[in-house]
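Most newcomers find our protein records easier to grasp once they have seen one. Sequence and backbone structure share a record, each on its own labelled line. To make this concrete, we reproduce a full record directly below:
***
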Amino acid sequence: MIRLALYLLCGAIFGAGLALSGMVNPAKVTGFLDIGRAWDPSLAATMGGAVVTTFLLYWAARRRSRSLLGDEMPKPPSQRVDLALIGGAIVFGLGWGLAGICPAPAFAVAVLNPLALWFVAGLAAGVMGYGLIGRLTSSPD
């Protein structure tokens, strides 16, 4: 029960940060992505803060074998840049730019905004399509 409460608290803090930064407002996100006309650089601070926080937490956790809750630490993510990573980044960027909604805030506002609901549906279809393509193209062991 305590573990669930901690997960909910972390999610609430993350959601509050997204809301405070303006990431749940498609106009704010589109303004950040519109470099040619009315560029709004304010979300760069949000991204910079996320990068610094992630770096510091990865640095602090690099030698730990167990998490603060006692779970085994996951293996570090792959450092390999391959076609799947590049393709995924392109699709992510296109979806973000076209809809003006980042995936995490889309879940937060999907119940209030029909555009976000369509975005979440498209995101789910993309994830399922990726999984299907992966299963069809992987060789059996």
The mean pLDDT is 80. The first helix runs from residue 2 to 21. The two ends are 40 Å apart (CA to CA). The helical segments are 2-21, 26-33, 42-61, 83-99, 103-109, 114-137.
